[in-house]
Amino acid sequence: MTSLLLPDADGGTRRYTLQPARAWARPSAPLASRHAYAAAHVIPEATADNTPGAPARLDWDATLAYRHELWSYGLGVADAMDTAQRGMGLDWAATQQLIKRSGAEAASVVSTGNVATAGKSVRDLVACGAGTDQLDLDSLPAGAAGLQAVLEAYREQIAVVSEAGPKVILMASRALARVARGPEDYLLVYSALLQEVSEPVILHWLGTMFDPALAGYWGSDDVSVATETFLSLIHEHADKVDGVKVSLLDAAHEVALRAQLPAGVGLYTGDDFNYPELIDGDGTHHSDALLGIFAAIYPAASVALQKYDAGESAEARAILDSTRELGKHIFSAPTFYYKTGIAFMSWLNGKQAGFQMVGGLHSGRSVVHLARTFELADQAGLLRDPAFAALRMSDFLRINGVGA
User: Fold this and answer.
1) Which residue, among 59, 35, 33, 242, has the nearest Cα to 125 in the 3D structure?
2) Which H or E element spans position 246?
3) What CATH number should be reported for the domain holding residue 125?
4) Sign of torsion over alpha carbons 48, 53, 55, 57
5) Does 403 map to a domain?
6) Over the stretch 305-364, which tens digit does the pLDDT of each residue have?
């Protein structure tokens, strides 16, 4: 059995023995009972200037191969989202390329076909974020001029996504949070956009634990008041809303919200702590998924969804529960650094050559935190080749002074 020394928070080390590899079967038919998008990360060129503020240079072969890996397990891909470091290293120039390339790759999968994606459209395979991050917040005008700038920025990005073919996800906007004076300004902007789109979109509500700049979204710091505004928008434009993606890490709020949605509007959970019970459902409603953690646990997530399709709900729930501690750890505070854990698992599993992230975000977690990520990933059966992962983990620890 493979073993290695892992560091403890008190400065000591302990020997950890890895489990045998676990096999996770790819689906033999498209997933049907739950709709799921894994929010994928991006992989930079290892030799790029991956420092804060530097333009993003992506390793396109590795980045797109990761998306093909997710599709092979029957999952859709949520791209150009916060998991892909929107607002934390991925600039608009690189984002446009990501959207276009992901759309083209999804189209190639549709045209060639495989058992996991048979009958799926490009919109089923990939949904991309449209936001306003091309705006300079420091030069954003106030009042009506600011709202118009936000509208035009959204329109530009919606056009890029729509032309590339993916489903549009209307991302929460830091610019709108800055210039909006109350709920009526949110309704003005979103209503205008929903009237203009040609296909239903996903509305994205991201909490402050993921992005502190989004405080007071929908016009209030009171979540119950904000929810009333959110629901009024959805009910008025239900024909233009495919679903809502809510990332507030509040399971009770999500359960109450999904019961109030109009028929035909789904709820894609963004709760990376409570996803097992939310996807499992309460007997009347269940949540679909648009989750960053699915980019890390995708083999297990796929098998769980296959179990739901087979009517084996208890087995499905048990699989999702087995990944919960890993999800809670990767998304622990400060939550917006969860992307570091996802990239670290990608590196451990050989999906990228180096443990690098655009914007220097690979330094966002401590050595001890990442060692615990390694341990929990192994316990969840999510290290593809435990010996290979242990070798990389040993190298990482050695160059960071552990056991030297």
Assistant:
1) 35
2) strand 241-247
3) 3.20.20.70
4) positive
5) no
6) 999 999 999 999 999 999 999 999 999 999 999 999 999 999 999 999 999 999 999 999
